[in-house]
Amino acid sequence: MRYAEAGYYLEVDLATGNIERVATDPKLMELHLGGLGTSVKVHWDRVPPETKAFDPENLLVFSTGLLNGTPVFSANRTVVSFISPQSGTLAYPMMGGFFAAELKYSGYDKIIFKNKSPDWVYLYVSNNKVELRDASHLQGRGAVETQELIRKELNDPKAQVAAIGLAGENRVFTASIEQSRSSASRLGGGAIMGDKKIKAVAVRGTGDVFLAHPEAFMREMQGVTDYIKYRWENPIKDVMTILSGIGSPQEMLHTDEKWHTENFAWGNARTRRRDFWTEEIDESWSKSQHGAVKRLISCYNCPTHCGALISHKDTPRYMAKCFGKLTYAMAAYVDDLDFSWKILQRATEYGVDSFSTPQILAFAVELYEAGILTDKDFKGCPSDKEGRFFWLLDRVARREGIGDILADGVYFAARKIGNGAEAFDHNTIKKHEQLPIKLGTLDPLYFLMYSTNEKISITQMEGQWPQSAFPTMEQRQEFVRDWPQIPDEKFKQIVLDWELRGEKSIPYFPTPDMCSEIVDWMEMMHNIDDAVGMCCGMSSFCLKPPYHIHNYPKIISAATGMDLDEAGLKQIANRSRNLHRAYNNRLGIRRVDEKPPEDHWKKRFPELEEELLSTYYTYKGWNNDGIPTREKLEELDLGYVADDLEKRGILKNG
Ligand code: MTE
Ligand code: MTE
Ligand code: MTE
Ligand code: MG
Ligand code: W
């Protein structure tokens, strides 16, 4: 009997149409849990580093997490992993909704796609019945539309469908995978589906998932329930509203966007508009949002409602959440929120990442204004801001004209266009567009998070540490008073000592040693979430979340029957993290790649930055180039990884 996990992978060879149900080694769970952890292992074992994103050998893996399908609240994430066409590294966008639960109840932990299909297909998984079906009639259909069409065609209204739109079909590097209220958005998963000619994956399962120790499990979950209630009734004081509660940022509920609109940059990550949020804007944006949001919705087995069903005036319905609400309006310098709801609808049907795509469009507009792109490139483009964005979005999704170049993302487009365009690529890390945040003084914690994490975006690292020092000692004492989530009491003292100005403030405090420990702790919790399939909005993305290093081992033990303690869980998280790092080292990632854009902060401290990176690498057991040492790898039972890195000449002298 297997507990928590299903114990089977579904292996789909798209070239031959062969489908197999393959039992997995139970040891894998003990070594890597599941989700991202076991997926990284699959890629390491099977996809050699010479593989490029659009090679048939690139695997596309849809993975449930270890706790998906159990009664653990908010464990509903599906991890999609592949070598990204954008970054060239092992990417893992995630999506919530109900997909992971249906897949687990069908009896599979993962679906592994290899090779390419000669014709457009979609996969239908319904318990033991698994088939590749013709999708030629769905070609050109929107990502939301397709989901409904497939449910009708299968006569299975409860099937959960993950689909791509035109952008994925056209291998646009920012193409996303859309699935009901969720989206695996970043780094081009949609392009990999398109390259393999998979239009969609539909799943529906009615089987069981078993728990090893149900009574102990329910006791732990009672503790989580009580804490969630407590957190709802006791928002965190002295932090901004979006950080005071749990759930991913509640931007479908709240209408006050003073903080984002005045602190994030508009256009191509250019301008801060510090007096943007007036009473007039407040009124018109609230009205726009209340008109567009039909109702708030949650993912599988989650008590919060972070997403919303949107229909603006007469546009077809779609789902939205979080910061996606603002990205197009801010990138286009449009002060009318109605524009956001309208263009998001089209972008969702095309299936494109709502973080990177608006930046690509804003980048193109800037190049045009600078005379680097010309009237020839913009032939037929309307001259108003809104019309221009719609026109550019169409060109990118269809890869028409200049859109074909822009569809490879800002980094590659800048290099193809040349003629000075590279200078306008000022907001990418590892070739990937970042959130448009340009701030004053270097923040050492954020410097490390931006530079080193494998997801290449900060959601995978930040969350549990306050974003800035509290002004008064009373506020600090209040914050640390009730903080059981920390792995070590010493973190409290750092909060107490941390000042807004003076010696004990950024960039020199927290010190590089302290920063290493704080960042490592936050990242470890994210990695655990991604392995068990937990929404980090209920966990590591929050200040003081319901799940933490002290209750996770008990929950995982009760669910799986493993005898796991804190040290054991840390060891597993570390093992998977180092395997992921080694994989990306194999794909070429080195110290020189680990840097935020030059203008991310106005005041930079080159010596301190080098010290931060070196200190962090040493803390992690990595060499000066950011590669795990043999000693570290052996300590994590990854001797085979050290052998491989040495054989390839990546790791020298241990
Ligand atoms: N893109 C699309 N198409 N739809 C979305 O809901 N959400 C954005 C961004 N891009 C979103 C999107 C938000 S708020 C986040 S945090 C990231 O995608 C999540 O990235 P991931 O899905 O790759 O993990
Ligand atoms: N959960 C995990 N494990 N990893 C993530 O990156 N991103 C969070 C949240 N939960 C995230 C996560 C953020 S910021 C958002 S906006 C939503 O998931 C995105 O939801 P979706 O991926 O279902 O669209
Ligand atoms: N960090 C800062 N400083 N300010 C923010 O508003 N927003 C969060 C988070 N980090 C936010 C932030 C939100 S809403 C999201 S969705 C994530 O950043 C996504 O960013 P990423 O894709 O770069 O991780
Ligand atoms: Mg997502
Ligand atoms: W978000």
Summarize this structure as a short list of keywords or feature phrases.
single chain; 654 residues; alpha+beta; Aldehyde Ferredoxin Oxidoreductase,  A, domain 1; Aldehyde Ferredoxin Oxidoreductase Protein, subunit A, domain 2; Aldehyde Ferredoxin Oxidoreductase Protein, subunit A, domain 3; 3 domains; seven-stranded mixed beta sheet; six-stranded mixed beta sheet; 25 helices; binds ligand MTE; binds magnesium ion; binds tungsten ion
Task: Write up what this structure looks like.
The chain has 654 residues and is of the alpha+beta class. It has three domains: 8-204, 4-Layer Sandwich (Aldehyde Ferredoxin Oxidoreductase,  A, domain 1); 221-433, Aldehyde Ferredoxin Oxidoreductase Protein, subunit A, domain 2, CATH 1.10.569.10; 439-647, Orthogonal Bundle (Aldehyde Ferredoxin Oxidoreductase Protein, subunit A, domain 3), CATH 1.10.599. It has 25 helices and 20 strands. A hairpin with a 7-residue loop joins β15 (307-310) and β16. α11 (324-332) crosses α12 (337-350) and α20 packs across α23. The protein is globular, with a radius of gyration of 24 Å. It starts with 7 loop residues before the first strand and ends in a 7-residue tail after the last helix. Magnesium ion (MG) binds at residues 93-95, 183-185. The site of magnesium ion has 6 residues, from β6 and β12.
